[in-house]
Amino acid sequence: MEKFIACMCENDYNQLIVSGEPTPEELTEAWTSLVYEFCDLSDAKEAKYKAILASEIKLEKMKIKLAQCWFNILSVCYFPQVVTALKEIGFEDFDLNPDDVDQYQNDFIHITGELNLLRMQIKIKEAEYASLQEAHVKHQAMDSKSFDVMFFRINNYAKREAVNEQTTVQKYCTALRDYLAYIDSQSKVTK
Q1: How far apart (Å, rounded) are the C-alpha atoms in residues 79 and 74?
Q2: CA nearest 140: which of 53, 46, 35?
Q3: C-beta of residue 85 within 8 angstroms of C-beta of residue 66
Q4: What are the boundaries of each domain within the chain?
């Protein structure tokens, strides 16, 4: 939990490094994957949605970068491998046949339109993500004290020291899920 907390609260993704020298993008991707798994294990639906949204934004940005690079190559010289690569990332509706110059130019125009549409979709998702982040920050800033409070609450519920900073993330998630289910069941009883 100690390293997980450092990643969560301080954005210190270097805590994830076991060996080698991963790029910041690889660390961010690994962290997103861990948060997604954390949300699955702890049954945190809103956090899971935010993790999925963040992942979609990153993937779509990468798709645009790749498509733009390959698009630039095709504007200079035709390579069938580049056309295949474009189709593999979602541009399969275009023939990109250099023998039909008019259709080739139309395909370029349509791909440019699709790239612009993707950029707009990313902006919408980024705005939604920012809104969720802002609401979360206003609701409760996540710092190490937040985890200390949750450790206390879970341990109080379990009537023993069930979790602490040395606990594995999986064990913490299980304890958190049990605690949240208990809280949920108690709130239904009082209604």
Answers
A1: 7
A2: 46
A3: yes
A4: 57-140
